[in-house]
Prior knowledge:
Layout: H1 20-36, E1 41-45, H2 46-53, H3 63-72, E2 79-82, E3 93-97
Antiparallel strand pairs: 1-3, 2-3
Helix pairs in contact: 1-2, 1-3, 2-3
Amino acid sequence: MKTTPTPRPQSPQTPARLTKSDFVTALRKLLQEAEKAGKTSVDVRAAALHTDVGIYPARGHSMPTCCTVMYEEMKPGDEILVTPPGGKGPSLLVQYKLPR
């Protein structure tokens, strides 16, 4: 009697590291869409932005990069609504004023 080997369960792979550019592109697109919809501001939470760009939470996530981009894209009039401990984390919430 011939038996076939049972496949070993594969460990979850670490997703490819997301780049700063990935987050800049996604955030700017989100802001443009909100502006086209006639909104005067949009609240962006880091966890939601990261999830839009790539898997979060996951091993090897890029939350620090996501938060850095959110801070760097701020302009006069924008407001930080929630600052996580340490300044960078999924609860970071920024209100971006529109139009940009």
